[in-house]
Amino acid sequence: MRRRSNRSNTEQGSDIDMTPMLDIVFIMLIFFIVTTSFVKESGIDVNRPTAQTATRKEQGNIIVGIKSNGEIWIDKREVDIRAVRANVARLHAEQPLGSVVIAADRDTKVKVLTQVMDQIRLAGITNASIATVSDTQ
After folding, report:
1. What is the rounded CA–CA span in Å between residue 52 and residue 50?
2. Which of 87, 65, 78 is nearest to 131 (CA)?
3. pLDDT in tens, 8-54
4. Mean pLDDT of 72-78
5. Long-range contacts of 87-90, Cβ-Cβ distance < 8 Å, separation of 24 or more
6. Of 4, 44, 63, 68, which has the maximum CB count within 10 A?
7. CA 73/CA 41 separation, integer angstroms
8. CA nearest 104: which of 54, 66, 55?
9. Is 63 exposed, middle or buried (0-12, 13-18, 19+ CB in 10 A)?
10. How far is CA 33 from its chain centroid?
11. What is the pLDDT of residue 137?
């Protein structure tokens, strides 16, 4: 008796199953999306004052912008001085390693800047920085 080779069975078994590889790729994609930190901007452009001791801070995730007319901007929307504390506390809870940077216009009144700094300290953040431009002479 002759043995017959079963070619149809071998052809079916030679397909490569791509499902596990696609599962791993999608899991890695979700991991990278979740672990990415996003930089939040204040939403306004200000003319920052110059300082000789200005240093660059790479991780400033919470930026509070103050215009020269006293408007306060956080996360691309205008907020009242009474809402600064709650907004900064919420953003700090989302990014606990991020620092707070106050980007105040050079013509901003000291009263508004002091009120903003006070609200940030009441939110529990004691190391807020003021954004400046390096004075290169």
Report:
1. 7
2. 65
3. 555 555 677 888 888 999 999 988 887 776 655 555 566 666 666 65
4. 88
5. 88/62, 88/64, 88/119, 88/120, 88/123, 88/125, 89/123, 89/124
6. 63
7. 9
8. 66
9. buried
10. 13
11. 47
137 token code pair: 């002479």
Domain 50-134 is of which CATH architecture? 2-Layer Sandwich (3.30)
Tokens describing residue 51: 């300082």
* pTM for the whole structure: 0.57
* pLDDT for residue 16: 79
Sole residue written with tokens 């899991």: 27
Collapsing DSSP states into helix, strand and coil, what is residue 69? Answer: coil
Single-letter amino acid, residue 120: I
Tokens of 24: 């791993």
Q: Where are the domains of the chain?
A: 50-134
